[in-house]
Amino acid sequence: MDYLSEDVFEACRICPRRCGAARSAGKAGLCGATSQLRIARAALHFWEEPPISGESGSGAIFFTGCPLRCVFCQNHNISQEGFGHPITVRRLAKIMLELQDQGALNINLVTPFHFAPQVHEALQLAKEAGLTLPIVANTSGYELPALINAVADDIDIWLTDFKYASSDLARKLSGAADYPEVAAEGLRHMHRQLVSKGGRKEDADGRMLQGIIVRHLVLPEQTDDSCNVLDMVWDICGNDADLSVMNQYTPNERCRTAGGPLSRPLSRDEYEIVLDHADDLGFERLWWQEGGTVSESFVPAFDATGVEGEEL
Q: Which of 72, 80, 210, 227 has CB 3.0 to 4.6 Å from 201, enough for a Cys bridge?
């Protein structure tokens, strides 16, 4: 299968769902998307890890749709409810150049790979027109290894989630019981790709130019699973990857209404348990969050900022 050809959308198998939707005929896949490229926002973003955002900001492009259905998703209006504006590949390429002109440290593609063929084409066009920034793949971690291999030449930095070690938890909270095995195999392939390119690189100011950052969001009453996730990441990557352990879980309306553990924020003690485990494992580049991150104000406004404009 050619993951970088739009033929893949005829009976879509581009993600682990392998839903077979006729996206090229206008049918939405389980990701919620047809083959029509759609984005919700393109702007400088200052809330990523320091090697990504720095002080100038990351050039974040938020794509509509997602193959996961996380009950606690903070971006649900674009990941599950379909908000976003249709654009052309040439407009996407131009957006990348506009973000570079605004001083972005990188181009940050947020949940992009259900549009992998268009993203690949846009990157080629933008690079031919003068794009020189590192390219960040900001992914849920739920990607096929073959897709990772197909896009590897386009990607400098993997900014990937690793959400769960438990299949039961993954099924309950994201509707994807296979998430742990998919994420683990995907991370192995990301790691192999990084090693083949010479490993982690940064510039004199600490901006990441090449590497892997694995993100894990700690959930209330799930510290055991979080520690198991960290064990898996360590076994796969060791210190070849940065680790970002996040405390920013914020109950959305769905979780507040349902009650149970996900109706409350994470406690400080729960967070410290997972941070201590990361230290015990030996992660040398460990990113953590201080108090005050639990707020929906950290979710950007999905209002089509930066979407409309000229094509390349």
A: 210
